[in-house]
Amino acid sequence: MYVSGGSDLARLQRLQRQGAEARARMDGAGQEMSTGEKADRTAATGGNLTRLISMDRALARNAAFASTISLTELRLDTMQSVASGIAEAASALAVSLNETVPLGDVASATRLGKQARSDLADTLAKLNVQVSGQSLFAGTATDRAAVAPADGILADLDALAAGSATAADAAAAIDAYFAKPAGAFFTSGYLGSADGLAGADVGEGVRLDYGVTATDDRIVAVLKAQAKAAVAGGPGLAARAEDRMALLEAAGTELLAAKDGALDLGFAIGFDQQTLERAKAARTAETNVLSLARARLLEADLETATTNYQALESQLDAIYTVTARLTDLRFTAYMR
Amino acid sequence: MSISSALNNAASGLAAQTRLAETISNNVANALTPGYARRATELSSVSLGGYGQGVAVGATTRAENATLTAERRAMDAALGASGTRSDAYDRILTAIGDTTSASSVATLATGLETALMAATASPQSTTALAGAVSAAKDLATAINRASDETGQLRSEADTEIGRQVTQLNAALHRIDALNDKITTLVAAGGDTANLEDQRAQLIDSVAAIVPLKVARRDGGQVALFSRNGGVLLEGKVYELGFTPAATAVTAEMTVGAGLSGLAQDVGALTGPVAITAGSGAGLFDGGTLGALFELRDTIAPQAQSEIDAYAADLVDRFQSLMPPGALDAAGDGLFVDAGAGGQAGLAGRLAVNAAVDPSAGGAVWRLRDGLAAASQGSVGNGATLQALSDAMTAARTPTGFAATSARGGSAALASEITSFFAARAARSDEDRAYLSARQATLAEQESSATGVDTDTELQSLTLVEQAYAANAKVLSVIDELMQLLLES
Fold first, then answer.
1. In A, which residues are within 8 Å of B440 by CB distance?
2. B38/A198 Cβ within 8 A
3. Comparing C-alpha atoms, which of A124, A128, A126, A127 is closest to residue A155?
4. A192 phi and psi, to 5 degrees?
5. Cis peptide before A181 (omega within 30 of 0)
6. CB pair distance less than 8 Å for A13 and B124
7. Which of B121, B383, B453 lies nearest to residue A6, judging by beta carbons?
8. What ipTM does this complex have?
9. 3-state secondary structure B57-111
10. Segment holding A202, helix H or strand E
11. What are the respective helix, strand and coil percentages of chain A, to the nearest 5?
12. Could you please report the per-residue DSSP string of B111-162?
């Protein structure tokens, strides 16, 4: 075997390179140990970083969807409670009116008229409900109350009743008051915007149009029926018992139908709630799957990283030992 | 045969051993000097009329291994070129932002998407609107920065080409001068080893810039040719010519339009002749010089055109996908071209419409109410914001991209661009690591073959010591003999 001495410089360079390589690999292993993620992302994704970036992006978007969902959830829950509250009150009053009015008991019926006044005020107050400072039934004008205060509306209605000759006239005047789109309720009673809220984005391509304004036909029908009963309990018809009874009777009939509309609104909102619930579950599942896939892609096995690190540590140790020994093993040392 | 000739023999032996010791000590002293080649002093016996007349000291020669040196120099050039490319892709990737960076274009594009979604969900919230505007500004700034970096890369490459050409010309002239000195010394029988060391180091410095073929010529001279056949030094120096750009390099500048190409003075009457460079097949390609031309004229412009195409897509998305009412009076969308010019360099001029930028006298609510809106509209109106969010995510066929041809939203395009350059950076990095290992191995082999091994040198030194002692002993014995003669 031919053996050449090899130069000092070559030996030095070799040891330096081996040491530097081992140290560089140790840096990588150390990083994997401390971060728990693979140091070489390109290798981990097989050179296709798009996968990783699209996962990160989907996770970020899912977080945004989740926040929209929770915001919308609160709004829908509140809307549902408003709708069911309105339907309950309408239903209760409808039952009472239909029981009481046919008996011809003017005093009891008038008392129901008075109750209708507070029911109407209550319905209007419910429509002005706010969720985190946002009006729910005012369309896009979320910074305003949806409807004018009940006092003003009741006064308008009382004036209409007082100015009408017969019960049928009064009923017609109230119908006109709530007639879309020129009725006074729409021009001055409703304070919100004609534009509906933008749909909520609750998933890729899933947009939930859930907005309902105070001008919804189903709500207006309840308001109109309650208004007819309310004027019967008000000052406008105080001296006209027959007209009061006629109006209360009409109100009882209308309210019975309107209550169904309010219930229907509740169902519609319930349907949106269900859609939202499904979207929420889907986003959570997606987030979990994506996080898991991302972790699988990038996660460095801690045990492997530690083993690597230790192996490299002992290798570096060996390189240092060899360097020291080789330096000692010089002919110079033996010449003395 | 006489005692006096014996005395002369011993004296010549002493002189030869002293010279050997000198060579050995020089070798040991330079044991760790890079580029130093081991010296050997040749001895020969002298005989006159059939009788031995002592020892003659011959020339001191350098250890050489032409094959290994040539291979190592070729690898130096390849490694230099690979390093230039790899550094460039690293810088481009850093500017565009890789996956770990929070300020990467892809991350900020996703940031704008989610900020617009958050604003859509709470259109009344000034915080959400300001968040969307600042996300848009962050994205524009990141794109500006990426564009600036490619411009900077091209400017630096241009300056570096000028510096390397100057360095190469200067080295060629010094090699030429050394050639002449060596020829003179060879004729006079002098020691040329030190001059050859110097010349070898100068050739090394040229070989990293342009890969070389070294041809030996009479009188110890060398001629230098590039691997692809260009002449650099053959009796006289054929200088390369290059004029660095007068100003910083901008996106529109190309060779012939603001940028200079490589030229060589080949003694033509017309002056320097244009030489192709940067294509890989040019006469002087293969080293750092060719790689710098490639960087200036291909790699960086490609990155620039990619981010320009991305910026153009961004401007167009928020213009053509938005309802007309949402645009400003000039028909511009959320992103605008702050300067003038075509798509080249657009990324450097991209800005957010001043109408929504509070620091430019705008108001964030215009994001919700339309860029031309004179006053605030319904605070809960999320329709325009939703249209912005849709415009950002709408899948469109990319036009003018090298990185992708797949339909996608803006953030998807950004991630394709990142991935494209990340893959190139990784590939060029691997290439560099491979070449670097090859170069290190060759350099070790070369230095093993031509370098100094102190063990061998010291072993020789012990022999020299013994021979010196023997010669001295011979001298003293002859001295005693002469004394005996004189005393008798």
1. 13, 17
2. no
3. A124
4. -80, -170
5. yes
6. no
7. B453
8. 0.82
9. EEEEEECCCHHHHHHHHHHHHHHHHHHHHHHHHHHHHHHHCCCCCCCCHHHHHHH
10. strand A200-203
11. 75, 5, 20
12. HHHHHHHHHHH-TT-HHHHHHHHHHHHHHHHHHHHHHHHHHHHHHHHHHHHH
Between A7, A54, A60, which is nearest B453 by CB? A7
Of B108, B158, B157, B155, nearest to B131 by C-alpha is B108
Distance of CA B112 to the CA centre of its chain: 37
Give tens-digit pLDDT for A136-192: 999 898 888 999 999 999 999 999 888 888 888 989 999 999 998 888 999 989 999
Chain position carrying tokens 């009409």: A250
d(CA B200, CA B196): 6
Write the CA distances from A155 to A111, A121, A221, B279, integer angstroms: 18, 12, 19, 89
Q: How far apart are the first and last CA of chain B?
A: 21
Q: Which residue do the tokens 């309802």 mark?
A: B323
Q: At what angle do helices A49-100 and A217-232 cross, to 10 degrees?
A: 30
- Residue-wise pLDDT for B226-266, tens only, equals 998 899 999 899 999 999 998 888 888 888 888 889 999 88
> How do beta strands A206-208 and A200-203 pair?
antiparallel
Residue with tokens 């330079």: B30
Comparing CA positions, the residue from B473, B462, B484 lying closest to residue B6 is B473
DSSP 3-state percent helix, strand, coil across chain B (nearest 5): 60, 10, 25
Report the residue count for chain B.
488
Does the pLDDT of residue A3 top 60, yes or no? no
Best A2, A3, A9 residue to mutate vs chain B (most B CBs within 10 Å): A9
Angle at B208 between CA B231 and CA B151, to 5 degrees: 100
What percent of chain A is modeled with pLDDT above 90?
A: 45
A15 burial (CB, 10 Å; 0-12 / 13-18 / 19+) is middle
Contacts of B488 (CB under 8 A, 6+ apart): none
Q: Is-contact B252 B268, C-beta < 8 A?
A: no
From residue A240, alpha-carbon distances to A106, A118, A161, A237 in Å are 11, 21, 11, 5
C-alpha B222 chain-centroid distance: 26
> For residue A304, what pLDDT band results from cuts at 50, 70 and 90?
confident
Give, for B232, the enclosing helix (H) or strand (E). Answer: strand B231-234
Report the alpha-carbon distance of residue A52 to residue A296 in Å, rounded: 11
Look up tokens 């060589």; give the residue: B264
Q: Tell me the shortest Cα–Cα distance from B415 to chain A, in angstroms.
A: 6
Which residue in B389, B415, B458 is closest to A331 by CB distance?
B458
Report the candidate in B344, B309, B300 with the shortest Cα–Cα distance to residue B152: B300
| DSSP state for residue B44 in the 8-state scheme | E
Nearest CA to B294 out of B164, B272, B348, B302 is that of: B302
Give dist(CA B5, CA A324) in Å, integer: 52
The minimal CB distance from A64 to the residues B118, B415, B444 is found for: B118
Specify burial of residue B287 (Cβ count, 10 A radius: 0-12, 13-18, 19+).
buried
- Total H helices, total E strands in chain A: 11, 4
Contact A140 B34 (CB under 8 A): no
Provide CB contacts within 8 A for B282, sequence distance 6+: B228, B262, B275, B276, B290, B293
Nearest CA among A19, A140, A79 for reference residue A269 = A79
Q: Find out whether B406 and B333 touch, Cβ atoms under 8 Å.
A: no
User: What residues are paired with B258 via a beta bridge?
Assistant: B254
**Burial degree of B124 (CB within 10 A; 0-12, 13-18, 19+):** buried
* H or E, element range at B224: strand B221-226
Give CA–CA dist B431/B79, Å, rounded. 9
| Cα–Cα distance measured from residue B270 to residue A61, given in angstroms and rounded to the nearest whole number | 64
Residues pairing with B259 in the sheet: B255
